[in-house]
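BUG: 3D viewer hangs when loading the predicted structure for this chain

Environment: internal workstation, default settings.
Expected: structure renders.
Actual: progress bar stalls at 90%.

Input used:
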Amino acid sequence: MIEPAEIHADFCDIEEMVRTAGSYLEISADLRPRTLEEARDESRETSTRSWITAWGLVLVLLAISVGRFRDGLSSAIPFRAGVSANGDQLYADALEKAAQSNVDPSWTLVDAFGELRQRQSSFIDEVF
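Structure tokens produced before the viewer hung:
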């Protein structure tokens, strides 16, 4: 077991070593300003990192929510064949009707667009 007198003697030796080492140390005149400037730089870097992290999280959450919103919209409106058509399909249908009814293809194309718009209108009325 260590006696209190031994502990006190050890502390006295350490204190004596610190006192003698103090004469070896010299503090430069610019130590305080350098230390403050390094602390400010570190604070700025930490602040910048936290802002970048926060904006990154906001963008990720926004991307996820927009993706879910788009998925929700696409699944909310049921698909029905014949409501959408591309130009090639309409033109082919118009040519086929023109050949069957012996009418000018331009008029059957107008009729095809009219029928498409009618189908889309009725579809929108049913959904909404």
